[in-house]
Amino acid sequence: MKWMILVLVSVAAMPLWAQDVEIELAQIQQRWAEIQYQVQDRDKEKAFEKLAAEAEAFVGRYPGRAEPLIWQGIVLSTYAGAKGGLGALGLVKQARASLEAALDIDPEALDGSAYTSLGSLYYQVPGWPLGFGDDGKARKYLQKSLAINPDGIDANYFFGDFLLDQGEPQRARIYLEKVLAAPDRPGRAVADQGRRAEAQARLNNL
């Protein structure tokens, strides 16, 4: 009888546990978007440092889940961008480790966001001997993210930006224009607006 009660309690608790993950995930996503697109550049490093600590705690609360690891990787990589210099290299290595761990758990979590973020790291981080940048790996990961989420705003943005970096402006235009036409993501208005503005700026430069 006790065993049956324990089973019933566990089953009843599962949806609440999953709901907690979604609530915390939305909070991390919203705060990231606010820092990335609304906070002054001079204040971004400290804001991302604080958010990185929150993301680390988020991962610790939900071991075995890919979503917290993905967002830890995203937060660490943007924190590195705000920090700059040699100090950023340790952060991007941590970001890569988090994203690779997420892939091991569920490659399609959050519409393949781990592939998107890893791809963006590989073309933006310096290559050997300073970093681990690798354009071939970047292309592979970004194409995998597009295969999972062909209409995704981030998947198209980063592949378009990568193609610009590779000297392929006409192909880049196709993907950057898809960013402007991508469907809105529920609860991600600030991030979507910011990403579309970035895509439009690159199109204007073309």
Automatic annotation (TrEMBL):
Where does the UniProt annotation place the signal sequence?
A: 1-18
- The reply to whether Signal figures as a keyword in the UniProt entry is yes
Which Pfam family is an annotated match for this chain, by its short name? Answer: TPR_19
Keyword entries, A-Z? Signal
The protein, known as: Uncharacterized protein
